[in-house]
């Protein structure tokens, strides 16, 4: 079995912390570097339910996409849910590691997995390349095997992504033919202008706000929009990250067991009809 230090070293060779944004918080959150790692749980969010899943399965390490302490902290007292989470992990010898914006821009990274999940084929190129390496960057642009109507592509995307209460929202002519597609895992309305400049037929991302999206679709000639749940657009990356880690360790003759959490940690749990609220 590898040590936690061995495992973190492999993860950071795949998702270099230097690629993370300056405001981000990536890397090892808690755990003894000398501890042995047999089981690793991959999840989008470091939440109480994910920690409970890890403890119940007997995991030694949780790898999440989202940080627990993005803005830092001066206390891990069990007076907050984050403090209680840290206490749960330490008491049960479960380490926590985060790969966030460094995984977003990796090659392959979060958006590569999203692109494959919604049916894009062929080579994928960054929507917004990284200055240091044009193969890395935010988002991906790819093509469909054959053109589809926007309606049918939205159906394909819904089938390829895990279900959430909000589902998918679509803006544009549903009969429009689409072939060239841009995707970006997580919040993507900062890339609306970049997607337009890329000349794609549709841009699939998450967390599109009303005003930017409304103004965007009013301008003629731009891409259609598909807005999915933030969690759903990043979840496909987990299996890819698990595969890359196990392959890297296997090359050294090391075997670990991995599991992708299927627990939906999207904040929204249900859709209520107006009649039910009267």
Architecture overview:
The protein is α/β, with parallel strands linked by helices. It folds into 2 domains: 126 residues, NIF3 (NGG1p interacting factor 3)-like (Udp-n-acetylmuramoylalanyl-d-glutamate--2,6- Diaminopimelate Ligase, Chain: A, domain 1), CATH 3.40.1390; 124 residues, NIF3 (NGG1p interacting factor 3)-like (Udp-n-acetylmuramoylalanyl-d-glutamate--2,6- Diaminopimelate Ligase, Chain: A, domain 1), CATH 3.40.1390.30. It is 34% helix and 24% strand. The strands form 2 sheets. A 6-stranded mixed sheet has the order 5-6-8-9-10-7. A hairpin with a 7-residue loop joins strand 5 and strand 6. Helix 1 crosses helix 10, helix 2 runs parallel beside helix 3 and helix 5 packs across helix 10. The longest helix is centred in the C-terminal third of the chain and has 15 residues. It starts with a helix and ends with a helix. The mean pLDDT is 96. Homohexamer. It holds the Pfam family DUF34_NIF3. Belongs to the GTP cyclohydrolase I type 2/NIF3 family. One of its GO terms (molecular function) is metal ion binding. InterPro entries: DUF34/NIF3 (IPR002678), DUF34/NIF3_sf (IPR036069).
């Amino acid at each position: 079995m590898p040590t936690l230090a061995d495992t973190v070293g492999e993860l950071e060779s795949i998702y270099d912390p230097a690629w993370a944004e300056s405001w981000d918080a990536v890397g090892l959150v808690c755990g003894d570097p000398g501890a042995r790692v047999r089981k690793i749980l991959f999840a989008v969010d470091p939440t109480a339910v994910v920690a409970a899943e890890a403890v119940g399965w007997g995991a030694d390490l949780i790898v999440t996409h989202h940080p627990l302490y993005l803005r830092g902290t001066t206390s891990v007292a069990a007076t907050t849910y984050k403090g209680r989470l840290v206490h749960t992990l330490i008491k049960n010898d479960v380490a926590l590691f985060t790969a966030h914006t460094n995984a977003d821009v990796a090659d392959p990274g979060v958006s590569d997995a999203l692109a494959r999940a919604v049916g894009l084929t062929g080579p994928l190129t960054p929507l917004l390349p990284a200055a240091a390496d044009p193969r890395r960057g935010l988002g991906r642009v790819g093509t469909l095997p054959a053109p589809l109507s926007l309606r049918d592509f939205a159906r394909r995307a819904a089938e390829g992504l895990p279900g959430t209460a909000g589902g998918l929202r679509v803006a544009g002519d549903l009969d429009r033919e689409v072939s060239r597609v841009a995707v970006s895992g997580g919040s993507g309305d900062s890339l609306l202008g970049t997607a337009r400049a890329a000349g794609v037929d549709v841009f699939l991302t998450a967390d599109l706000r009303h005003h930017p999206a409304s103004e965007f679709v009013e301008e003629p000639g731009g891409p259609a929009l598909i807005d999915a749940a933030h969690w759903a657009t990043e979840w496909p990356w987990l299996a890819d990250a698990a595969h890359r880690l196990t392959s890297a360790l296997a090359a050294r003759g090391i075997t670990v067991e991995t599991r992708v959490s299927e627990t939906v940690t999207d904040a929204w749990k249900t859709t209520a009809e107006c009649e039910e609220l009267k």
